[in-house]
Amino acid sequence: MTSSATNLSSVEHWYALQVRSRKESAVATELQAKGFECFLPIYTSVRQWSDRVKQVELPLFPGYLFCRFGLSNRQPLVVTTGVLQIVGIGKSPAPLDDAEINALQLAAASELPRQPWPYLSAGTRVRVIHGNLSGLDGILINFKGNHRVVLSVSLLQRSVALEIDLSWVMPLEEVRIAQSGKAPARTAIAAPALDVNC
């Protein structure tokens, strides 16, 4: 192996790990104890049983967690109890886009309500321009009368929806025009949202 290939495999990237369902938190804790940087985004869900109602924290991506490591240092990770595989293409682990992980970390740090969401590839791409999530790019949708920005992790084909105020977002195309210094072809506060009837 050449020195450039060795250097490339020691560079740390974010990867998605497929883990045993309902063991995400335990696996993350064990990996952190081994010195790995892990990220397990969670949300609060209200669960009702016959005798009580309880708020529980659940993973936004059930069966997955995110871990930062160099491929040359993956052996201690893959032998950890509960880790099924490193998500990739074929048999090759595929690193995640840093922008997607940064967006998820920003969303997790915000106090906005969030929930798992079906993966979307169509819709109006927007950038949040106000509030805690300023600078975040996503897809604008309308769900039960409330606007949400959907963040997607392409490799997992999973998404997360965050409730936002419509005045906080601007169509991504208008943001790019504003940054380039050219006058926009049209002026609009926000693009129409995808209407999700559920």
Description:
There is one protein chain. This protein has 198 residues and is an alpha+beta fold. It has two domains: 11-96, Alpha-Beta Plaits (2-Layer Sandwich), CATH 3.30.70; 100-196, no CATH class. The protein has helices spanning 3-10, 24-33, 75-78, 98-109, 172-180, and strands at residues 12-19, 37-39, 42-48, 53-59, 64-70, 83-86, 88-89, 92-93, 114-117, 124-128, 137-143, 146-153, 158-163, 169-171, 194-196. Strands 9, 10, 11, 12, 13, 14 and 15 form a seven-stranded mixed β-sheet that branches. The longest helix is centred in the middle third of the chain and has 12 residues, at 98-109.
Secondary structure blueprint with pairings:
Elements: H1 3-10, E1 12-19, H2 24-33, E2 37-39, E3 42-48, E4 53-59, E5 64-70, H3 75-78, E6 83-86, E7 88-89, E8 92-93, H4 98-109, E9 114-117, E10 124-128, E11 137-143, E12 146-153, E13 158-163, E14 169-171, H5 172-180, E15 194-196
Parallel strand pairs: 11-15
Antiparallel strand pairs: 1-5, 1-6, 2-5, 3-4, 7-8, 9-13, 10-11, 10-14, 11-12, 12-13
Report the end-to-end length measured between terminal Cα atoms. Answer: 54 Å
- Strand proportion: 35-45%
User: How many structural domains can be distinguished in the coordinates?
Assistant: 2
Classification by helices and strands: alpha+beta
Question: How would you summarize this macromolecular structure in one to three sentences?
Answer:
The protein is α+β, with helices and mostly antiparallel strands and 198 residues long. Helices cover 22% and strands 38% of the residues. It has 2 domains: 11-96, NusG, N-terminal domain (Alpha-Beta Plaits), CATH 3.30.70.940; 100-196, no CATH class.
